[in-house]
Amino acid sequence: MLDYIYAGVIIFFLIIILVIAKVEDGDDMDYKENDEEKR
C-alpha cells in the first residue's frame, strides 16, 4: 500500500515540475521580447 502512495506522490511532483517549467519558459520568452523592446 505504501508503495502506491509513494509512487503517486512522485508522479504528482513530476507533473507540477513539468507545469512550472512550461510556465517559466513562456515567461522567459515574454521577458526576452520586453527587453528587446526596451533596448
Automatic annotation (TrEMBL):
Q: Which residue spans traverse the membrane?
A: 6-23
User: What keywords appear on the UniProt entry?
Assistant: Membrane, Transmembrane, Transmembrane helix
Name it.
Answer: Uncharacterized protein
Source organism per UniProt: hydrothermal vent metagenome
